Amino acid sequence: MRNNIFHILLFIGCSVLAQTQDSLQLKEERSIVVQDTLIDQDEYDPLAPSKAAFYSAVVPGLGQAYNKKYWKIPIIYVGIGSGIYFYNRNTKDYNRFRDAYKRRLAGFEDDEFQGISTDRLIDAQKNASRNRDVSIIVSIAFYILNIVDANVDAHLRQYNISDDLTLLPKLNNEMLDNRPSYGLAFKIDLK
Predict the structure, then answer these.
(1) Which residues contact 114 (CB under 8 A, 6 or more apart)?
(2) Which of 6, 52, 55, 151 could form a disulfide with 62 if both were Cys (CB 3.0 to 4.6 A apart)?
(3) Is 146 helix (H, G, I), strand (E, B) or coil?
(4) Could you read off the pLDDT of 46-56 as tens digits, one per residue?
């Protein structure tokens, strides 16, 4: 049951982070002419992606705040926190199963798992250990995903979309047999 909940939380967390914005945001070009020289007010900052990645590495979610993507911060903390929670829970279960198994080897039969065989206790220890390892891997994966997301988002935030360079899908109908033909048009406007 706990494994199913863990997998559901993992699926939800990954699917939410995989979502992208539905609309493109066009960057408005602003410039000032000073003594016949064109100067961009919004200059490209090549260190912005590395700053965002560094901030996320130091404090998870800080890179998303730097990129002004505040809605991603709770998802990061839920992912990391759920991995840590299940790590602690599986560690406690592993210790309970191990202590009961050790007591049975010592000859005591008064543990909390009276109706369970010794072989089943060994299987339960292996299962709890495996789940504990997966939980810590999930936490580390969310931490790394946090850093990568901040870096990529900072790169894409500075991406300039202009009308000079477009990539358009094309759909044509064939005249002879009325079957659709698909294509891709790449347009470069050199002014």
Answers:
(1) none
(2) 55
(3) helix
(4) 778 999 999 99
